[in-house]
Design a protein that fits this description.
It holds the Pfam family RVT_3. This is Pre-mRNA-processing ATP-dependent RNA helicase PRP5-like. A hairpin with a 5-residue loop joins β2 and β3. The protein has 125 residues and is α/β, with parallel strands linked by helices.
Length: 125
C-alpha cells in the first residue's frame, strides 16, 4: 500500500528486476503528497546481480528528481541490501553495490525501510 509523503515532499518509489546473467530493468515513479504522478522512468541495464540492479534503481530515482525540480524527496525501495548499505555504512554493505551507492551523496540519502519508517541518518561516509 502506497503512503503519501508529508506536504511539500515528494515520494520517489524505485524498483529493479534482474535476470541472470546480465539482464536488468529499473523503474522510478515520483508522486507528490496528493498522490499525483509527477514523473517516472524505466530503463534496461546490464547488471551482474540483483543487488546492483536495486542500487541502480535508487540512483536513477535520485537522478530523476532534479529534472522535475524536486529538492525534498523520500526514496522508497524494497531492497534491504541497498537500504542497509546507504543507511548504515558503505564498509558493511554489499561489495556488489558499492560502486553504485558510493556515487550517491550521503547528504541526499533518506531511505525508507519496507515498513515506511525512516532510517536514522549516519555520518560515517
Amino acid at each position: 500500500m502506497w503512503i503519501a509523503p508529508t506536504p511539500h515532499f515528494f515520494k520517489i518509489n524505485v524498483d529493479g528486476a534482474w535476470m541472470a546473467p546480465l539482464h536488468a530493468k529499473v523503474g522510478v515513479i515520483i508522486r507528490d503528497s496528493d498522490g499525483l504522478l509527477i514523473g517516472g522512468e524505466a530503463k534496461s541495464l546490464v547488471r551482474a546481480s540483483f543487488e546492483g540492479t536495486e542500487a541502480e534503481a535508487i540512483l536513477e530515482g535520485m537522478k530523476l528528481a532534479p529534472k522535475h525540480h524536486i529538492d525534498h524527496a523520500i526514496i522508497e525501495s524494497n531492497s534491504k541490501a541497498a537500504i542497509d548499505t546507504l543507511s548504515i555504512c558503505l564498509c558493511n554493505g554489499s561489495w556488489r553495490i558499492f560502486p553504485i551507492v558510493k556515487v550517491i551523496p550521503p547528504s541526499l540519502v533518506m531511505v525508507l525501510s519496507r515498513d515506511g519508517l525512516p532510517c536514522p541518518p549516519v555520518n560515517e561516509f
